[in-house]
Amino acid sequence: MLLVRKLVFLASILASGSVAFAEGGVSEKAEALFHVGPLPLTNSMVTSWGVTLILVFFIRWLVGKPQLIPARGQAVVEGLLAYMRDLFEPIVGKKAMPAAFPLLICFFVFILLHNWSGLFPFIGTVGWREINQATGEQVGFIPWLRPLTTDLNGTIALALTSFVAWFIIVWRYAGPKLLLFDLFGNKADKKDVPSALYWALSPVFLAVGVIEVISILIRPVTLSVRLFGNEFGGESLLHNTSYFPAFYVLEILVGLLQAFVFTLLTAVYIGLICNHGDDHDAESDHHPVDAKEAVPGAPSH
Hints:
By secondary structure, this protein is mainly alpha-helical. The protein is built from 11 helices and 5 strands, in the order H-E-E-E-H-H-H-E-E-H-H-H-H-H-H-H. The strands form 2 sheets. Strands 1-4-5 form a 3-stranded antiparallel sheet. A two-stranded antiparallel sheet has the order 2-3.
């Protein structure tokens, strides 16, 4: 019944012409449009669902029915995926790339579209007024839609997803032994340093490992705050300057950069643990060619 009353209330607002356009800056938190039981459904959540559905249907329409000889739309999508794979594979490593690539491409596209969604008409600018019944004055404004990346809850969810995925991929493709050694192990080579110095370095690497664990635990904080701060600041700037063209173009670049930075950092975190030994394996697959094998007809000894 509460949901029905909310919908009736929304219809009455539309019918009475009380639809408002935002003036000034944007709120630092997402506003609840209505509640389903105790669960609030915010404008940023609605936008995230809409962007996801549009993305899915657009990709399906662009690719169509996959073919061995790709059509134009399928070729565009495959070309972009191949470019992104070539970009991230040297960072992540060949072993973990099959598991990490779907995560990375989804992060980049999803965050990019949300960063740019705030530049579209009516997103973050159209909603309903909150009126003080006693005075009849407007006391607030609730936009119907706002980008997920301008909501700190949304960026925290993305950062926690990145952190959990990092742990699963590292645990599977590197294993606990390599993970513990990479964090706390003595990286000095016994052949290059005296034995006494080697053992003296062990507490140093242990202390560095503790610092590294702390830095890993705060990654969700840094990822979420960086993305939220840049996107919320950009939205506020655009609203307060009435979408000044120079700032509009700047936000296009900032949105692209922040999507790439978030995805790149996730790839780097995975590659720091998983990208070990690929170069050695590649070298072992290409043995030096003997001179007599390189020159046809060379005499054998």
